[in-house]
Task: inverse folding
């Protein structure tokens, strides 16, 4: 073997030995050279601090329907889970006694109207006679007083009819708004009493989240302010409805409204309202820089010998970045992309 072939063989053997040595490097260091242009120097970033307050997402509109009448239920037209529209008939109550009173009131209106018409005729006649000096002023005043009384009697009779119509309207139970029937308390044949619950209805298209916060947090909130809320671990937007002192003192109640037109969130779900709480400094890295291995989260940090895999404690995700709570310092260089 000549000198050239011996040199080539030596180079091949050295290359193989180096490759074997690199295969023995522990997985926690991964000494691989950084790719040019794929590194990032981490730095402290000022972000808005948040205060997480837990609460329950409840429907803004909820109603337990009842009646002012006393009578038996003749029809119940809905069941739990039915979706109804505003004004839809839900149940009917036997109101025959109301109908009987309506006939009496109508008769009274007819009589009062006849008296009023007769009083009008008398008033017109005596006005003409008084103009021709054929009647005294006293006679005219008496007739005018009779007309006033007749008009008052007619108005009273009509008001009784309006009141009876209002009461009779309770014989038909209607939905005050569009929503879902969540509970049916009665069946046909049951006896309805004034104020007793008949049907419960709720509209989940808009939810209200009520939480308690310290005074320092409440002081930063304004009506109409947009805040973030998580309902059953799903993010959504909310609008502050108002802030009021709690009855217990030392805390404030914050109400926020969440639009839910498609019913993505169920009423009664647990919710966490994230409200601003000043500012703080932290380290943010792109989501693409994170490495996942089971429950562990890491990044590749540039070191003098190459890239070192380092496990870190990650926090919340913020607009494509993630907060690093521990494991990185400002000024360190991390590598982006895969190993």
Result:
């Amino acid at each position: 073997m000549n000198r050239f072939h011996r040199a080539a063989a030596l180079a091949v053997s050295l290359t193989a030995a180096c490759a074997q040595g690199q295969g023995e490097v522990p997985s926690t260091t991964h000494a691989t050279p950084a790719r040019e242009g794929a590194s990032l120097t981490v730095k402290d970033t000022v972000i808005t601090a948040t205060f997480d307050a837990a609460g329950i997402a409840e429907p803004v509109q909820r109603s337990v329907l009842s009646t002012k009448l006393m009578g038996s239920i003749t029809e119940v037209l809905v069941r739990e889970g039915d979706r109804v529209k505003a004004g839809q008939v839900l149940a009917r109550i036997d109101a025959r006694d109301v109908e009987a009173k309506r006939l009496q009131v109508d008769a009274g209106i007819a009589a009062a109207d006849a008296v009023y018409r007769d009083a009008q005729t008398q008033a017109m006649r005596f006005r003409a006679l008084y103009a021709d000096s054929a009647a005294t002023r006293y006679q005219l005043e008496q007739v005018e007083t009779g007309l006033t009384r007749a008009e008052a009697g007619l108005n009273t009779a009509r008001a009784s009819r309006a009141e009876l119509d209002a009461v009779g309207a309770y014989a038909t139970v209607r939905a005050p708004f569009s929503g879902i029937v969540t509970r049916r308390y009665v069946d046909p044949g049951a006896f309805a009493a004034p104020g007793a619950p008949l049907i419960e209805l709720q509209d989940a298209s808009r939810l209200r989240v009520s939480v308690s916060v310290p005074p320092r947090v409440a002081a930063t909130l304004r009506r109409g302010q947009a805040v973030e809320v998580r309902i059953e671990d799903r993010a959504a937007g909310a609008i502050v409805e108002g802030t009021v002192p709690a009855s217990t003192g030392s805390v404030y109640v914050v109400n926020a409204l969440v639009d839910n037109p498609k019913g993505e969130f169920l009423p009664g779900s647990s919710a966490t309202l994230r409200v601003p709480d000043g500012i703080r400094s932290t380290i943010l890295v792109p989501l693409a820089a994170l490495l996942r291995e089971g429950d562990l989260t890491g990044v590749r940090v540039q070191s003098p010998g190459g890239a070192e895999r380092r496990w870190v404690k990650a926090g919340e995700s913020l607009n494509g970045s993630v907060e690093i709570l521990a494991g990185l310092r400002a000024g360190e260089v991390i590598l982006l992309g895969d190993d």
Summary: The first helix runs from residue 3 to 22. DSSP finds four helices and 18 strands in the chain.
